[in-house]
Design goal:
The chain contains eight helices and no strands. It is mainly alpha-helical and 172 residues long. It is 74% helix and 0% strand. Helix 1 packs across helix 4 and helix 6 crosses helix 8. The mean pLDDT is 85.
Length: 172
């Protein structure tokens, strides 16, 4: 790393030489949290870029400086995580199960059954295979004795027909 090297070239050389060792070092410091270690490596290189002119004066200082900064960045990150209160997720009270949910499920099931009776038998057969039995396209094609492309197109049109048979689901 010559004294006359441009800042971009010097930074590229530092990055190429120290990225992997710094990543290993920081991964150990943060107990295997790879994503966090990668973020800390980037922060270390950002600080390196900001201090590049001072580092360029004595290239022997680069490695010790990098590892010291990396350690400080890791310590700062851990302190910041400890200073924040733990995240708590609040359940969506609108989605908690209730007797109304069970009733909604019964009504929905009944509505779909009635609508299935209103669509063409070939469309109904495809929907039963694909959605109720959980068959793949290939399995449905084999069971129904039709090509896979036909299964795909019938599924598309069957879902549209089922939506039309059910009608609007939003309250007016």
């Amino acid at each position: 790393m010559a004294e006359r090297t441009s800042p971009e070239v010097l930074m590229r050389q530092i990055h190429e030489q120290y990225r992997t060792p710094l990543l290993r070092f920081l991964t150990r410091l943060v107990l295997g949290q790879t994503e966090l270690a990668e973020d800390l490596v980037q922060e270390t290189f950002l600080r390196t870029w900001r201090n590049l002119t001072a580092l360029a004066e004595d290239p022997r200082r680069i490695a010790p400086w990098l590892y010291t900064v990396a350690r400080h960045v890791a310590i700062d990150a851990m302190r910041a995580r400890q200073a924040r209160p733990p995240e708590v997720t609040i359940p969506d009270l609108n989605r908690l199960s209730s007797s109304e949910d069970e009733m909604d499920r019964v009504v929905s099931t009944h509505t779909v059954r009635l609508a299935l009776q209103q669509i063409k038998p070939e469309h109904r057969a495809v929907l039963v295979e694909m959605y109720y039995k959980g068959s793949s396209v290939a399995e449905a094609a084999a069971t129904l004795g039709i090509p896979e492309g036909t299964v795909k197109s019938r599924t598309y049109y069957a879902v549209r027909a089922l939506h039309a048979a059910i009608g609007p689901t939003e309250p007016s």
